[in-house]
Amino acid sequence: MFERLGKSAKAAMISAQMEAATLGREEAGDEHLLLGCLAASGSKAASLLRSRGITRQRLVEILEGLDHMDGAGLDDDDARALSSLGIDLEEVIRSAEEVFGPDAMDQAQGPRRRGPRPRAARFGPAAKRAISQSVMEAIVLGDRRVEVEHLLVALLHDPTGRCAAVASAVGLDYDSVREQLNPGPGTAAAG
After folding, report:
1. Tens digit of each residue's pLDDT (9 = 90 or more) over 126-137
2. Torsion of CA 62, 173, 152, 143, to 10 degrees
3. Fewer beta carbons within 10 angstroms: which end of the chain, N or C?
């Protein structure tokens, strides 16, 4: 599979691993691959993301918000259920942190890893699925190499990953991005 990866896809994957490590993660998830796509300067994928006002800072802020909800043991379904009762989950979390201090809603953390942090995070299951899906996207388009555009489309293919939550927050969806980035059969840049 890795022999099919073009330079832009490899660069995005390496960037994703570095981003995950920078953000304190041992595993790079699909959301970190999205950051890697944004970092692929000169690519159609990065241009599309930037044209939608998406920056690294904005993506990191969204990820921190997701981490905040995850740390409280709550997810989007919980937020929707509480909202239907007139309860704003974000406001509850803010209030709790004002009274009890930052991260008051976080669950107890497990033991900290000893030793130096890795330079690059390994890929987690969601990232591995996205990378595999990017190969399928390239095959369907008749492209010989997987480039960052295939990776971006693949990231939006799975509606259940953390990347899906980030994509939803910034207005990205699989169909429109696939249509905008589809270079046509056999036209992906060789890498």
Report:
1. 999 999 999 999
2. 180
3. N
Residue with tokens 């927050």: 169
Report the domain count for the chain: 1
Indicate if the alpha-carbon torsion angle 39, 41, 45, 47 is positive or negative.
positive
The 10 Å Cβ neighbour count of residue 145 is: 18
- Domain range for 162 is 2-72+138-181
Q: Which two structure tokens, joined as six digits, stand for 149?
A: 């555009």
What is the C-alpha separation between 67 and 62, in angstroms, rounded?
9
Least confident segment among 53-67, 83-97, 136-150: 83-97
Instruction: For tokens 């043991």, name the residue.
Output: 73
Q: What's the helix, strand, coil split of the chain in %, to 5?
A: 60, 5, 35
Better pLDDT: 29 or 119: 29
Phi-psi map region of 111: left, alpha, beta (phi>0 left; psi -120 to 50 alpha): beta
**In-domain check, residue 114:** no
Neighbouring CB atoms inside 10 A of 136's CB total 14
**Secondary structure letter of residue 52 according to DSSP:** T
CATH number at residue 177: 1.10.1780.10
Contacts of 103 by beta carbon, 8 Å cutoff, 6+ apart: 71, 97
